[in-house]
Write a structure and sequence with these properties.
With 152 residues, the chain is mainly α. It is 66% helix and 0% strand. It is built from 8 helices and no strands. The chain has helices at residues 20-44, 52-56, 59-72, 76-89, 94-110, 114-127, 135-138, 144-150. The longest helix has 25 residues, at 20-44.
Length: 152
């Protein structure tokens, strides 16, 4: 025995497309908001502020950026070289120094160089007294215990 079921749905007309004038009217508030944000953003820039190209012209910042990029790409020996270079190249902000030391600590711990790992975590805290690892970073099985031992 075969049972056949037929379902009939009511026909629904698609909504009419808005006219060009209505579409333009809908865009006007968005356009005004974007323009206001762009103008406000331009005002927020300090005159003579430092841009990305200015930062990359500085040897320390350029090496730091290259080191962080190499780290993210899994090129740890190259990252270590660039991060060391960044720290030796000249003055950086304390936060940038801490970032360089932190990533060096990660590299040292993952290559079983515990003493340099500890020293790098201490150097990161000296460079930036507010330095802390994120929750996921401090929970890492290789460098988390070293970090918690050195910087409780």
């Amino acid at each position: 025995m075969t049972l056949k079921v037929t379902l009939t749905l009511p026909k629904v007309e698609p909504p009419a497309l808005p006219t060009a004038r209505l579409r333009a009217r809908r865009r006007l508030p968005r356009l005004a908001t974007c323009l206001a944000l762009a103008l406000a953003g331009g005002c927020a820039q300090p005159p003579g502020g430092i841009g990305l190209t200015d930062l990359l012209a500085r040897p320390a910042e350029r090496s730091l950026m290259m080191g962080l990029r190499a780290y993210d790409e899994g090129q740890y020996s190259e990252s270590e070289r660039y991060l060391d270079e960044a720290l030796k190249a000249g003055p950086m902000t304390g936060r940038d120094q801490a970032a360089a030391h932190k990533h060096l600590a990660f590299i040292y711990c993952t290559t079983d160089r515990i003493s340099p790992c500890e020293a790098a975590f201490r150097a990161a805290r000296r460079a930036d007294p507010a330095f802390v690892l994120s929750r996921s970073e401090s929970g890492h099985p290789l460098w988390g215990p070293v970090y918690r031992k050195v910087l409780p």
